[in-house]
Design brief:
Low-confidence stretches: 18-89, 167-173
Largest sheet: 5 strands, antiparallel
CATH topology of the domain at 221-324 and 352-429: Apoptosis, Tumor Necrosis Factor Receptor Associated Protein 2, Chain A
CATH class of the domain at 221-324 and 352-429: Mainly Beta
Strand order of the largest sheet: 3-4-13-8-9
Structural class: alpha+beta
Distance between the termini: 121 Å
Strand content: 15-25%
Order of helices and strands: EHEHHHHHHHHEEHEEEEHEEEEE
Shape: elongated
Number of helices: 11
Length: about 425
């Protein structure tokens, strides 16, 4: 009988042996991991195509139950790659709808935090997110309008973080904000309020007016849409802060189809931002008379503060000059015409200019937002009837010379944030 001796030799690692103690998992097992969704860097500057099969995210019945929000790659990675415009994120694993939603929220958070002006990266990421949501039956519009970033929507932070340009000749909203609003539309009233709050915090009147002229942000009522149509330019509002007086400002208004809109819609609202407050100048027809207020059917002007604006004293006046008529060259007179025109001809040729309409808007109490109004020691709105002004009442009459032939009313509001004195005039220099 032969005896076999089996020797067990314990293997000791050699010095400086580069071989790892444990081999990495096989390639086939990587895709089946249950870890949070990972992202792949394609290292290509091309935007993600809508037909790409990598965005199809079928639901997996073996996926674990939804957990907390999945964060996207670290901010340093997003920052470097986004600014280089050389990589795009793709979803590479099958996930549940909840996983996809959490991943999209994480991506959008990083995108807004590290936004780069005029970069195509944001557009590509949002396109990828839209495709991923569509594959799971999710609405990217609903996801974007969630207050998922520190109690606010992504559009709020895109406005707060955008660098100020101060270029009045620029008429386009920044690319990232445009894309966010486009994918989020139709916007809910709460989302619009969140966007307005962001514009107020940054005192960005230029951006606010650009947004106000967009149908996504400020849709027309059915009546105004029928009156104005799609080709009529919106009302123009220009705010000028007085450099020599930190509490003074002036606003120029061009209100299109003024009389027609008042008669049919009964209301014209003009919103603007000035001196860290959001204001509304409103022309309206009183539908129901109130105690100590204008009578029913009166045309009125009101000035009020809008949401999130701090209270203030205000003394102001609305100025409406008579438009300067366009000079039309008269046809040559025949040689037989008299040398001296008649008195009637001279009156028609040189009509006497009418005085400028000046309507004082002041209050003996501090002006507060309607939601903050609590007592008679505060004022929710300054309301003045056009009938209180001899010339102002003429704005109601057809053919009035204070409205231009193109039916545009041109007015100027001059205001100072100070208590009004009863015997003083509101003037700013």
């Amino acid at each position: 009988m032969q005896t076999r001796v089996v020797m067990i030799i314990e293997k000791h690692p050699l010095p400086n042996d580069p071989t790892p103690c444990e081999a990495p998992p096989a390639y086939e097992t990587v895709g089946s991991t249950s870890d949070p969704v990972q992202f792949r860097d394609n290292k290509r500057p091309e935007p993600i195509l809508a037909s790409s099969s990598t965005h199809d995210l079928p639901s997996s019945s073996t996926s674990p139950s939804p957990g907390p929000v999945v964060k996207s790659p670290s901010s340093s990675n997003v920052k470097g790659k986004g600014r280089a415009n050389s990589s795009w994120f793709n979803f590479t694993a099958s996930r549940t709808a909840r996983d996809v939603q959490n991943t999209v929220l994480g991506l959008i958070r990083d995108l807004v935090r590290e936004q780069e002006p005029n970069s195509p990266t944001g557009l590509g990421i949002l396109e990828s997110c839209a495709e991923a949501c569509s594959g799971q039956g999710l609405s990217l519009s609903t996801v974007l309008q969630e207050k998922s970033i520190e109690g606010h929507t992504p559009m709020y932070w895109a406005i707060v973080k955008r660098p100020p340009d101060g270029q009045e000749h620029e008429t386009a909203v920044p690319d990232l904000l445009t894309a966010l609003i486009s994918y989020a539309s139709p916007l809910t009233p709460k989302t619009i309020s969140d966007i307005r709050h962001a514009c107020l915090l940054t005192s960005d009147q230029l951006l606010f007016q650009r947004l106000r002229m967009s149908p996504e942000f400020s849709p027309l009522s059915g009546t105004d849409e029928m009156l104005l149509g799609a080709t009529i330019p919106p009302d123009e509002i220009t705010v000028e802060n007085v450099p020599s007086d930190e509490g003074a400002f002036a606003v120029d208004f061009h209100v299109v189809h003024f009389q027609k809109r008042i008669l049919v819609s009964k209301r014209i609202e003009l919103d603007f931002i000035a001196r860290a407050r959001m204001w509304r100048l409103e022309f309206s027809v009183v539908e129901k008379a109130q105690h100590n207020g204008p009578r029913q059917g009166s045309w009125c002007i009101s000035l009020s503060l809008l949401e999130n604006s701090p209270p203030t004293w205000v003394d102001s006046r609305l100025i409406i000059p008579e438009p300067t008529p366009t000079t039309v060259e008269s046809p040559p007179q025949p040689s037989t015409s008299p040398a001296s025109p008649s008195l009637l001809d001279r009156v028609k040729a040189q009509p006497k200019p009418k005085p400028t309409i000046v309507i004082r808007l002041k209050s003996s109490q501090q002006l507060v937002t309607p939601s903050a109004y609590q007592s008679h020691r505060e004022c929710a709105a300054i309301v003045v009837s056009l009938e209180d002004s001899m010339m102002g009442s003429s704005l109601q009459y057809a053919g009035t010379s204070y409205i231009a032939p193109d039916e545009t009313l041109r007015a100027r509001l001059e205001a100072r944030l100070s208590r009004a004195a009863s015997d003083s005039e509101c003037t700013i220099s």
